[in-house]
Amino acid sequence: MTERYDAIVVGAGHNGLVCSALLGKAGKNVLVLEANEQVGGAAVTREFADGYSVSACAHLLYQLQPEVRKELELAPTLSCEDMATIALAENGKHVRLAGVSVDGVSDEDAASYRRFRKRMTGFANLLRKYLVKAPPRLGTRDMKDLITLGQLGFDIRRLGKNEMREFLRLIGMNIHDELNERFANPLMKGAISLDAVLGSHLGPRSPNTVMTYLYRLAGNAGRVGMPEGGMGSVCNELAHAARVAGATIRTHMPVKRIIVENGRVTGVETVEGERFDSYTVISSADPKRTVMELVGARHVETGFARRIHHLRSQGNAAKLHLALDGLPMIEGLPKKDFAERLVIAPDEHYVERAFNPAKYGESSPNPVVEMTFPSFRDESFAPTGKHVLSAVVQYAPYALKGGWNDEARDTFYKAVIRTIAKYAPDIEQRITASELLTPADIEREFHITGGHWHHGELTLDQFLFVRPVSGAAQYRMPLDGLYLCGAGTHPGGGVSGAAGRNAARAILRREKAA
Amino acid sequence: MKTYDAIVVGAGHNGLTNAAFLAKAGLDVVCVEKNDYIGGAAVSRNLYKDWWYSNCSYVCSLLRPEIYRALELHKHGLQVTPYGGSVTFMQNGDYFGSYHDEEVAYREMARFSRHDADAYKTYSADTMRQCRFIRDFLLSTAPDPTSFKPRDIKELIRIGGKFLAMGEDRMYDTIRFWTMSVAEYLDEYFETDVIKAAFSGSGIIGTALGIHSPGTAYVLLHHYMGDVDGNVGSWGFARGGMGAVSNSIASAFQAAGGELRTEAGVGQITVKNGKVTGVALQNGDEISAPVVVSAMDVKRTFLTCMDKNDLPASFHNRVENFKIRGSSGKVNIALDGLPTFPALPEGSSLHHSDMHFIDSMERMERAYDDWKDGTWSKDPYIDMVIPTLSDPTMAPPGKHFMSCFVQYCPYQIDGRAWTSEEKDAFGNAVIDQISNYSPDFRDLILHAEIRTPQDIEAEIGITEGNIFHGELTMDQLLFNRPLPGYAQYRGPVGGLYMCGSSTHPGGGVMAAPGANAAREILADLKRPNTVPENFGDD
Amino acid sequence: MKNQPVHQGRLKTPFYSRLSQLDTVNEWHEWKGYSSANALYCEDMEYFAIRNATAVFDLTPMTKYRIAGPDALDYLNRLVTRDMAKIRPGRVAYAVWCDDQGQVIDDGTIFHLREGEYRLCSQERHFAWLQAAAIGFDVTLTHETEDVAALAVQGPTSFSVLNTMGIEGLEELKPFGLTHCEFEGSDLMVSRTGFTADLGYELWIDPDKAEALWDALFEAGKLFGIRAIGTDALELARIEAGFLAAHMEFLPADETVRTGRSRSPLELGLDWLVDFKKPNFNGRRALAEEKRNGSTWRLVKLDIEGNKPAHHSYIFGKEKGNKGEIGFITSAAWSPVCKQNIALGTVRTPYGKPGSSVWVEIYYQREMHWNRKMAQATVVDKPFWFPPRRGATPPGPY
Question: What is the ipTM of this complex?
Fold first, then answer.
């Protein structure tokens, strides 16, 4: 006897949880199946060395959507709501970016940053409106799609002639040119470049990187936060909300396949062989894994399978965790600033050069680094007096030539440490334990194909109407009963819950229509 | 002092085209040119003995047939002969050829991959679909999406209608096509590295982008949308070199009563009360006219040839930020005989084809990395043609002219001027690249002209020597070209127009910008239109 | 080592030596890279060989793929619209396959050679599509166009010819059946298939044995009026049979540039090939929707008054006062056996119901001058030519 549910959600990452909570609130009997022992997917807190824990994959909160917070009555305790970004300089003359202000640069740059940031925030706000909606289909007569499209047109027009022109010009541009049009300070340009390319297979010179920068700003007006207890606590709260809404969450239940019978989805089967029935299966796994492994390409159309096959989803961001017996020395950095987000990207060329090897399946000899010391704000991460460094390091291409063997990992690890040591010379002496998660590791541990934190490159050809691929942008896959709700769908990754929420709404709307 | 109806600045093919259409409408037009020869970058030059070099542009395909016909260029001496085929030499001693004959081309692809050979037809159909979509807009002015004017709205609706008519799936394909990189586009069809490398060249020629840069799939199209006698995507040589194109347009212009003045470089475009009054030449002469049309690129037009005070401040600033980057160089060579390429089978038609020397996507992209680092590609991408194989007029019998278009080649080395040693080293990198595949090539060289973007700028006047007068990226295409709000050929000052490749639809010897600008000018002057309509698509 | 160039110009099939010996008119065209004869001596004579005796046509240039592996059936069933589970080993199926939008990519015949092994034979090449369709299936795809020489042996005496040649077991071979025998130490596959809607067979053999096979065939056929034919005669028989041809009745969807120029199987009158009851197949969703909402086009067989073939004609709803055409002719001919003016065409629905009338605008030239004629045409739903001998098993001694 198998159990029947109104909906089954595959994967208890933040999007899966948001989706199941919202479906649960709508009165659905929802089952969530999670492969790992913890909920959270790539947004988890876990111990990586004795006494030291860390937000294992995503480590900063950019964009948990207010709608999600409100609808699920979430109140994550943030140890910090709005972190500053400090662009480290070898000579200790760091540049500090916080909101619209920037310190450590010329007055001209500071003024121009204020203008730049304001304009970008304006565009990002426009974009944000559409991140929390299912992308409309083109060429249909569906009223909702037409209204959304009309609204989009209207909103762009409403920017005013000049701003609209600027928006249409900027959207396809690269951040490198935009920065060089405006600023002189290399550290500032480096830091903004890094924001534009973090988590992607792009360099600052790649067209589209203004868009990826806007995407980052669109989350929460560019504010970066860190939840108390790490990312895991956000997901624990989401899981709690889902349970309160009536969803059943079962962990350590890896799904083997999504069952398709007579051209429609009828349930899922776990690796253990257990079977759960439902005519609605929502996968928060990435599109490739969902279609190619869980469903099987044979159950979808050839052209669609081919598009999924060609989806670019190979990650470049590795995660480095260091257990430190004390804070390292960083010249010119006041102690309080260890609480902030420290970036190593001395200029935009440096970032571009770091990207170059990634194109050829090589890791960066001089990587870019985004570091935080979560233990500095939140003592729960490390034993008293000790510290944790959590860093996103780029570029470590998933498809490394020769594979991520021990030697390759060591080479990259050393490159990162060497890079950090330029700013924190005593870092090596401080390390008591370390963990490096390459995209290959992330794929293995978090079941994300290619280890890409957006589950698919966030470029214009994989954005909005065509995310993850054309024909599936409205969360519904071209297979009856199958939906996607993960970062591979619109709007993309980042712990925002937007994809999960949009998916839940699309499912409910469809049911209402039926 | 004589007052003309219009002054066209720059006697390149766009300036001449513009001038010709204005003259045909009965305007009294003078076209002024700084050099002592006309043609700009569409020119044949006699730089060594009896050799004539197409020393800038070197092939003719994009020239709009509507313009050719309206100006009756055949009566003015233009003859374009198609040529075809290309080859990419491989480091392993093999080669990948493409042939005129569809089936032979198929067999050649199948030699590497049956999959790719069969995928080619789908690739062609998909690319052709995009070509058909865009080609319709070449001879029309891009609508301003911010405007509420009936003509803009009408044109937007026309484009929208055409887009909608593609159907939902094709619309998505189109959106993706316009935003993706040529490498990704090719990856969706082909699996063989050398085939992809051979096709990807068209995605980067003339741009400061790499094959992996988003947006380069469109550039591919820009090179594909030309046609010679209805054969879309095919290329031709102008008999007598590219100068024949300019000369024939100039002849059409003069036949319509226009006046051509060479060695008449413009020092400044003069403005009074917000309106142009004419131009002041570098030699001190002044010419007056209520209309001045600049065929120069926007940077040169507004930053060099105008007083900053005559322009709106924000406009000036935007022109400064217009992206026009030197990314390609040229090496023109007089040959004592035909070099041999031992990798090619004897008697193969490929001996007479367009030759390339980069056989992998990685090498293509690495060539770009050098440019980003402020230097020329050490392993350069070369588009090499020998026009004298089909044109007997360009070199003495038995001798040849070879044109090498080279990418990437920066405008400056690390932000400073080229030294003559570096220029030689750049030329040698090109010669070495070819010599790798042709052992006797080096000994056949009688004379070589090495042109970096800096040289092209100095001689032709194009900022940074960019063949398109501005990058073909989305932020500089259609209604964004050259600048948002100024995409309809009108400058920020009354009576001032732009007709160069900086304007829509961009560069390549297409002559569409010149013609489109003429149509706008004639409309403003309330003169009958002499500019032809698009032939349209069926 | 010097690189060898790919063959320039046209390829010769393994039967070329024999065909060129018989050729008297030197009219050849290119067919997938091969030289293929339009006619060898006289189109009319060749045509009547099909309908009256035995005609031999070289179909080696047909594209052939081998599909093998544990998932071969599942793979094919996802590929084509009909249920391949019903095609047992030793049987052949005519099938079409569609893109995701339910538009026909191509039609072809699928030979179930043995359990888990098939040959797909089609006009166009599809390796890229077939490989894309193979994602997730345990199948091996092999391109084998050059590895198999093929002859069509068609006409009322074809059975007698093959029988005389010594091929056994043909008495029991039903239409769309296949059998194997040995020919000079090689496997000779004989299928009762063809493009003529007449009694006929197709022979498939190792190219090395091609000439020997030809010689044996012609030796045996001496008394039965055997003739080699070119494509012109075959084309006429094809239209009489009402069969579709790629690039005539439909355009392969993956080569179609203009939206709306491709066709679905339902629009081509192939409803009987679309099995909505079988497991998922490519294009199913789109076709189900088309089935619900109705098709845009309909392929029609037309019996046209008079005797002027309606080549390239427009089709109208009425004789006069039309607001525009409703479709156009895709293939047309005067049928010598039926003495009918026949055509295939495509019209917009709801026009073209069987039994209804439409008008065809025919242009024809007589001594330099062009004439125009509006001819009434009746939509018929059966092939123009479909003699009982086509299906007779065992075939009679015609």
Answer: 0.94
